[in-house]
Amino acid sequence: MKLNELKLDVDYFNFDEKLYQELNPQPLNNAHLISYSKSACDLIGLDYEECETKEFVEIVNGEKLLEGSLPYSMVYAGHQFGYFVPQLGDGRAINLGSVNKWHLQTKGSGLTRYSRQGDGRAVLRSSIREYIMSEAMHGLGIPTTRALGLIGSSHPVYRSYGEAETGAIVMRMSPSWIRIGTFEFFAKTKNSEKNLTQLADYVIKQSYPYLEEGTKTKEEKYEKMFFELVDNTAKLMAQWQAYGFMHGVMNTDNMSMAGLTIDYGPYAFMDTFDKHNICNHTDSQGRYSYNNQPHIAGWNLEVLANTLKDICDFEKLIKYLQTFIPQHIKEYLTIMNKRIGLDESLSGNANLDLIISLLSALENAKIDYNCFFYELSKLEDLEDISSITDICVFKEPIIQWIKEYKKVIISQGQDLKKMKELMKSTNPKFVIKNYMLQEAIDNANEGDFKLTNDLLNIAQNPFDEHKEFERYAKPTPNEHSNLRLSCSS
Ligand code: AMP
Ligand code: MG
Questions:
Q1: What is the mean pLDDT of residues 98-102?
Q2: pLDDT for the residue 489
Q3: Residue 78 has what pLDDT?
């Protein structure tokens, strides 16, 4: 399809007009294309060549609108670091409408009613990070919002330190942009019951349409929406934990009602394994540390349960929420079994002890988390594990763990061939680390976008060989390991 054949639907204006702002994007100066995602184009049936036209840049930049597009920003609230903030919103994001159920949104398109002290802009470095990482998460099969394209500009943008940076815009796409924080705002409005009901119906239409059938009452339907989100979030957290992903800012306004990873800021994929790792520089208490993530997700879901009190049976929601951590652990163990190649069904307890002792061994060995799994999948046999011990600071914990692992393999009669296949399909060669993104950002700041595009390709195909990027399959260089990033990242 050509750009001029895309027809957008806008379905948000049925809400009370106090719940959104209709406005036009404010274009950046001298905008130019940096990258576009063919895989995202496929989702909306857009021809790839269309993204190489001037018109595409003009659309992402907000100089031109697609047919049917009526831009708007949404209001929401949220608990930031545990404290309620009554009004947040799309402070720098503008929704353009949806095509094929994908809601297009540009991030960094200027001031909105919800910008507060912000400037409505996004700098190039943070835009590259979001653009590549959302596609990387998808490449790993982790539910996420997507990104269609990225443009840069000569527009000066000032952050708290240093010289002027330049503004950029990511065209993001999601089946839903509704957050827990959206419910928190709607619950505090004058006609809260009406607004909440309308919002819940909207979320169900977008993300859980099958609930329209088989529920007897509206109350039951909304309760089931909550249960679905509990299940999806338990799975999402399992994927984050198993792949060492840290979001960094799990405020309720950054938690998707569809159970997707959303709003990429100071995130990181763990370098050296450390369960207390904190990737967000401003998170001095470690509220959003690696180990806390599932618990915070549960806390956020409890906030949601509170906002749904008027339209659901609160007791039922809280009772269901008690299944969240057990569900999460079950999902987590399933993925971890795959990562070490074990057929879970041959074990009585999903190899819980072995996985717990693996985590201690990884931590004590001081080893790059995802590289460990990749090297494990490549081993010919368990007699020579030097490719793993060579990348440990301390070898002994891994040597001891491999002994335990061998015993389990033998006692459970695990099939070595199947183990290898399972590991190969679960342990990617490449996981996008912050130091790689920084290299792409440094080049982009010099006007060279090749690495941004190469990283996109690696991110989308992390199991492929990418021979010329062998160095990225190696552990993160020590000096770049587990660094904390600022929120403006
Ligand atoms: P975050 O935690 O990064 O998702 O952002 C928290 C809130 O601050 C959201 O409502 C954002 O829209 C808003 N925000 C962040 N940066 C800016 C900015 N540069 N201009 C306006 N609003 C912003
Ligand atoms: Mg946000």
A1: 98
A2: 62
A3: 98
CA-90 nearest atom, ligand 1? 12
Say if CB 184 and CB 89 are below 8 A apart: no
What integer pLDDT is reported at residue 163 of this predicted model? Answer: 86
HSE of 278, CA atoms in CB hemisphere, 13 A: 11
pLDDT band, very low/low/confident/very high, at 486 (cuts 50, 70, 90):
confident
Closest residue CA from atom 11 of ligand 1: 91
Q: What is the mean pLDDT of residues 32-58?
A: 98
CA distance 417 to 459: 27
Q: Examine the pLDDT at 228 and tell me if it is beyond 70.
A: yes
- Best substitution site from 92, 177, 267 to test ligand 1's pocket, by max atoms within 8 Å of Cβ? 92
Give dist(CA 262, CA 176) in Å, integer.
Answer: 10
pLDDT at 116 over 90: yes
Pocket of ligand 1 (CB under 6 A): 88-92, 115, 118-121, 249, 251, 254, 263, 265
DSSP secondary structure letter of residue 437: H
Q: What's the whole-number mean pLDDT along residues 246-262? A: 98
Q: Which mutation among 20, 72, 83, 88 tests ligand 1's pocket best, with the greatest number of atoms within 8 A of CB?
A: 88
Q: What is the pLDDT of residue 234?
A: 98
Cα of 268 from ligand 1 centre, angstroms: 19
Average pLDDT over residues 455-459: 98
Long-range CB contacts (< 8 A, 24+ apart) of 459-462? 459/132, 459/133, 459/135, 459/136, 459/139, 459/430, 459/432, 460/37, 460/39, 460/135, 460/136, 460/138, 460/139, 461/139, 462/136, 462/139, 462/140, 462/428, 462/429, 462/430, 462/431, 462/432
Q: DSSP 3-state assignment of 427?
A: coil
**Average pLDDT over the chain, rounded to an integer:** 97
Q: Is-catalytic flag, 253?
A: yes
Rounded (10°) CA dihedral 420, 426, 427, 432: 160
344, 350 in Cβ contact below 8 A?
A: yes
Which of 97, 134, 88, 85 is closest to 13 using CA atoms?
A: 97
Name 371's Cβ contacts closer than 8 Å, sequence gap at least 6: 391, 473, 474, 475
What's the confidence (pLDDT) of residue 160? 75
Instruction: List the domain boundaries for the chain.
Output: 3-75+88-174, 180-332
